[in-house]
Design goal:
The protein folds into 2 domains: 257 residues, Aldolase class I (TIM Barrel, Alpha-Beta Barrel); 125 residues, Alpha-isopropylmalate synthase LeuA, regulatory domain (Double Stranded RNA Binding Domain, 2-Layer Sandwich). It is built from 17 helices and 16 strands. 43% of the residues are buried. The model has no long low-confidence stretch (mean pLDDT 89). A hairpin with a 2-residue loop joins strand 12 and strand 13. The protein has an 8-stranded parallel barrel, surrounded by 8 helices. Helix content is 38%, strand content 20%. With 522 residues, it is an alpha/beta fold.
């Protein structure tokens, strides 16, 4: 199969998503990461829309990219002026990108209501904008905005707009499902009509408003498209854009197309995570191919089967995209889950050992109380080690007290925690302030233990989640606390459950520190 060109628009379309904003330095780092992955085009932004994008195009010229082309995005000229008079067109050229991509109106409804010009005038606007750019820029791509809606409303006119672009000898015409409402079964007939109308290479730009952006992109390729636009992790306005993290492995592993540099597919998960980090967003654990749950198995029958043949419940080998198989432990677990999880943790456990059944019964009883070990795998590993008598006793917390004091009505309460710990017969009694009671307790525990175990200073609290179980009991409910901690080498999750949120937090925090000490002694 042939090579499919990948066009990433995270730095432009992706930043239109709610809660996402990249600084210029972020955009440069992202562009370099996309270049390492082997993305063919990186759309840096719209130079005519804001100063940040202009600054990016200046900054990226000081960087050396080994593969990717930088694309600048804009629109056709405004009505009733020439391209030479249009500031947007001029700024596209002045940005000095490798490629210019402009969009034009395809839907007659938009021409009449948004541009408020005649249908013929819109054809001239498309053609002469592209002709002008082709004479001044090495490569020009035309995005046919709202193409699918336009085709369904008036197919003859929609195809005329594509011919106006083709007559300008553009390098690629991209069909945009701008409102994201087209379904996969509509593509074959529409793509056939397009290919009869123009001989220019065809691309696809899909939005996800009907949850079909990835499927539509793959269908377009199946129907002859050779250029696919999307964003990393599907970032984008409203419901997002087509997710390149799903499109890329589908093209490579299932459809036989080349689309990345050799050996780069296995870096897809780490690249996805990098984008989440820069965007300051939590990764979607259920994301196809690369999410934490993409190859996670919970039912005992499933786990038993994948141990014999992974393909029984996995559609690809997760390592191909940088992921891995995970075994979840819960009240649905069977003995095979426990054995598989023990092996994953590097713990030797005999399936016939009564300890295995003891662990399984403990898990089921604890989950009945509200514990959950999915996302708290460090607590589960400690549970196994305790049952096997293989966990060193590092410390005892013999007492703690947390006080919140409101001193002034217009100021936030002050939190203070006092902790008494015993390590090898030595008692340490300390106190610490914090930003809230849990932070104060965390700080006091670390302060008490760091003189005995200096490595605790390297542990960072990365995430803290509270769940009320069940909600029907109101303020008397059981509380589950999940804590994610980490050091420079790894991350781990721990859990605590209690009717007291401070006690539940203490359990999770204590497990977190114990796991760090155990891990460092391996």
């Amino acid at each position: 199969m042939g090579r499919i060109l990948l066009y990433d628009t995270t730095l432009r379309d992706g930043t239109q998503a709610e809660d996402i904003s990249f600084q210029v330095e972020d955009k440069v780092r992202i562009a370099k990461r996309l270049d390492e992955l082997g993305i063919d085009y990186i759309e840096g932004g719209w130079p005519g829309s804001n100063p940040k994008d202009i600054t990016f195009f200046h900054a990226i010229q000081n960087e050396t990219l080994n593969h990717s082309k930088i694309a600048a995005f804009g629109s056709t000229r405004r009505a009733r002026i020439t391209p030479a008079e249009d500031n947007n067109i001029q700024m596209l050229i002045e940005a000095k990108p490798d490629t210019v991509t402009i969009f034009g109106k395809t839907w007659d409804f938009h021409v009449r209501e948004a541009l408020r010009i005649s249908l013929e005038e819109n054809l001239d606007l498309i053609n002469d904008s592209l002709v002008y750019l082709k004479e001044r820029v090495a490569e020009v791509i035309y995005d046919a905005e709202h193409f699918f809606d336009g085709y369904k409303a008036d197919p003859d006119y929609a195809l005329k707009t594509l011919r106006a672009a083709a007559d300008a000898n553009v390098d690629c015409i991209v069909l945009c499902d701008t409102n994201g409402g087209t379904l996969p079964h509509e593509f074959p007939a529409i793509m056939e009509a397009v290919q009869k109308a123009v001989s220019i290479p065809i691309g696809i730009h899909a939005h996800n408003d009907s949850e079909c952006a990835v499927a539509n992109s793959l269908m377009a390729v199946n129907c002859g498209a050779v250029h696919v636009q999307g964003t990393m992790n599907g970032f984008g306005e409203r419901c997002g854009n087509a997710d390149l993290c799903s499109i890329i492995p589908s093209l490579s592993l299932k459809m036989g197309h080349e689309c990345l540099l050799e050996g780069k597919l296995e870096t897809l998960r780490s690249t996805s995570r990098y984008f989440y980090e820069v965007a300051n967003l939590s990764p979607n654990k259920h994301q196809a191919y690369i999410g934490n749950s993409a190859f996670a198995h919970k039912g005992g029958v499933h786990v038993s089967a994948i141990q014999r043949h992974p393909e029984t419940y996995e559609h690809i080998r997760p390592e191909l995209v940088g992921n891995h198989t995970r075994v979840l432990v819960s009240d649905l677990s069977g003995r095979s889950n426990i054995l598989a999880k023990a092996e994953e943790c590097g713990i030797e456990l005999d399936g016939k050992d009564p300890v295995t059944l003891e662990i399984l019964e403990n898990i089921k009883e604890m989950e009945n109380q509200g514990f959950q070990f999915e996302g708290a795998e460090a607590s589960f590993e400690l549970l196994m080690l305790k049952s096997m008598g293989k966990l060193k006793h590092y410390f005892d917390v013999t007492a703690f007290r947390v006080i919140d004091t409101l001193r002034e009505n217009d100021q936030e309460p002050v939190s203070e925690a006092t902790v008494k710990v015993t390590v090898g017969g030595t008692v340490e009694h300390t106190a610490a302030d914090g930003n809230g009671p849990v932070n104060a307790l965390d700080s006091a525990m670390r302060k008490a233990l760091v003189s005995f175990y200096p490595q605790i200073a390297n542990v960072k609290l990365l995430d803290y989640k509270v769940r009320v179980l069940p909600a029907s009991q109101g303020t008397d409910s059981v509380i589950r606390v999940l804590v994610e901690s980490g050091d420079k080498d790894s991350r781990w999750g721990t859990v605590g459950v209690s009717s007291n949120v401070i006690d539940a937090s203490y359990q999770a925090l204590a497990d977190s520190l114990i796991y760090k000490l155990y891990k460092d002694n391996q």
